[in-house]
Amino acid sequence: MKMEHEVSTSGTSTLSLYEDGPTKVQSSIEIVGRIKEALEKAVDALTPFVSGNVKADQKSGDRGPVTEADRAVNRVLHETLLRDGEGWLSEETIDDPERLKKRRVWIVDPLDGTKEFVAGIPEWCVSIAMVEDGRAIAGGICNPATKETFLGSRETGITYNGCGAQASRKNSLDGAMVLASRSEVRRGEWAVFDDSPFIFRPMGSVAYKMALIASGLADATWTLTPKNEWDIAAGVALVEAAGGVVQFLPDARPAFNNKSTLLPGLFACGPLLSNPISTLLRPYVKALGEKIDSPRKATQARD
Fold it and tell me: In this structure, are residues 204 and 121 in contact, taking their beta carbons and an 8 Å threshold?
């Protein structure tokens, strides 16, 4: 699949590169170009694999399925993206703590939505983010099944299949399209929202959901379930670059390249829905926090 891509070159602002010897400056346009190239090569690497007809192995520790497609894409992304002085974090690579010493780190998920990929459901994607000093500054997400590509950075804004896009400007949850985790809906966790004024649609892959939010094709998504950095880094980069909002629950800004890759639940939306969603979710976040804290306090009392 050949991807079209244009990024605005207006202005002269660039992103500072890590300092290692002589200072180097690399424009955000070049970073997005590197992401675009990596996504195209990833799509090529997926050609031999047929979604819905792929053997999956189970990772140890109940960490979900993995396929040879995940591994093939991971190799291509690593070969295409990584340069001297940059760190690497991927779901399919053993974590190297040396990344914690790097200012710039690639955070990738070779296939976000592997369950859907195995099942033949077109809700999976390749996800790439560039993180600088803990901030996701550029990202790219490609869903080869639907032929959708989302690319961008804080400096350039984002594109959807080569055309400029931005997050939804909807200012009320009335009639809003909210993308829900397919797994969470199946577990009954979204039943509390059955009578809400918004529409929610079950969907796999949190990265793909966040890309749809960034491009304005849906209004919001949220999850109370912790996610790993590779699940959401590219989505965070795109949503924020598109003028949207991402907030970790209960109330924190996204930060990446942490020692522990597991991050709290979050919501992502257009800029005008942040307050309504925060208000809506507050009691559920509080209840979840109390549920988690109760056994911890009981343990401490015994100690």
Answer: yes
